[in-house]
Design a protein that fits this description.
Number of domains: 3
Mean pLDDT: 94
CATH architecture of the largest domain: 3-Layer(aba) Sandwich
CATH class of the largest domain: Alpha Beta
Radius of gyration: 23 Å
Number of strands: 19
Order of helices and strands: HHHHEEEHEHEHEHEHEHEEEEEEEEEEHE
Strand order of the largest sheet: 1-2-4-3-5-6-7-8
Distance between the termini: 75 Å
CATH superfamily of the largest domain: Alpha/Beta hydrolase fold, catalytic domain
Low-confidence stretches: 1-21
Shape: globular
CATH topology of the largest domain: Rossmann fold
Oligomer: single chain
Length: about 425
Amino acid sequence: MPAMRPLLLVLALASTLRAEDSLPRRYPELDAEDLADAKAIAALEDHVNGYFDDELTEKKREHLKALEEAKVPFRVIEAVVRRGRRYGKPDGDIVGNLKIPGNYDPSRPTPVLVGLNGLSEGWETAAALRGYFTLYPWNIEAWQDPRTADIVWEQLWGLSRRANIDFDRLYCTGSSVGGHATWIAGVAGTDGWAALLPVSGSPGRVLVAMSEVYLANMHDLPCRATVGAQDDDILAMARRGQGVAKRLGAPAQLDVLEKRGHESFDDLAESLLAWSSELKRARYPSKLDFYGGLDMGRRHYWVEALADGTSAKELKIEASTKYVTRRIPAFPFHVQAEVKGQEVSIHEKDVKEIRVGLADGMLDLEKEVVLRINGKQAWKGVPGRSVKVLLESSARRMDRLRTFAWEREFDCD
């Protein structure tokens, strides 16, 4: 047994060195001084992951207290919230409903191509060659359900405990009904996607049954739609949607292919993925234009309508064996918001209570900020940073990359 001790010490030392060597790659936003104590970083990671993973409230409180008392800068804890998972290689090529590419590196955040109503073989192959995860969402009753994006986020949040998902690079696609669904997931869950790639689909349901104003939600979400010139009805609605999106300021592009019909365009999958791969989602746009309510959603980047005055109309959506009913606002609420310098301005219609989140990079959290709602000063002060807000908001939003250091709720006049 004594002869084994030198070997065990060498292995332990090698493991520690590997952990230390990987820290700069895992935390590029931190400097050498921040990462000097690898054991301290590991302890922070354990508390952050414990906060997200433990189900008991008392356990969460213990982790939160330890993090609040840690003698490290806020930026270090924020970095650990964003990148503090330690991943291993999965046993197979499937984790839950997430398909793993052969060249997957657990140390690197990996993009995800989400296929609504499935992915054809060409798209699956192109995504795997590019090193993407692919996800086929489970438990979707009807693909054109505006709540589909919420189901996707819930599934990705759970999967992110086992696979290193890049939440800044989530790409949504689908063919035919999946193409229609891609548009709907885009307007109802705008702030989660990096890009939309609808194929042989159109925003017809948005334009006709929901409201064309929802296309304004996509002000920072690039969309590249592909339709065949011989796909008459869908092409007509896609062109109409393109015109509305352009008028409302959404970055939508329509590619019409001559002598092509209603198909999945597998031969274009690689070029379309190459285009989208250069795009990352906007985390904190300085200007927001948001329509929502009921099943169309209440959260948009850094604002969330906690209560509103919208009334519902019923929308029936065809499922595989039945119709499902969803609640769509007869007239959606409307929020316009802007950060300019050290001022935050919010104008709303039919919102009763709103939550506002601020993060470093949006403005200077150590200087005085003025927040106005409908032209009236609602708050004035120095926001500062809160570890509690950092953790609570990330858990509530199921997102560890779009972090907030300050949040407050306001009644609207």
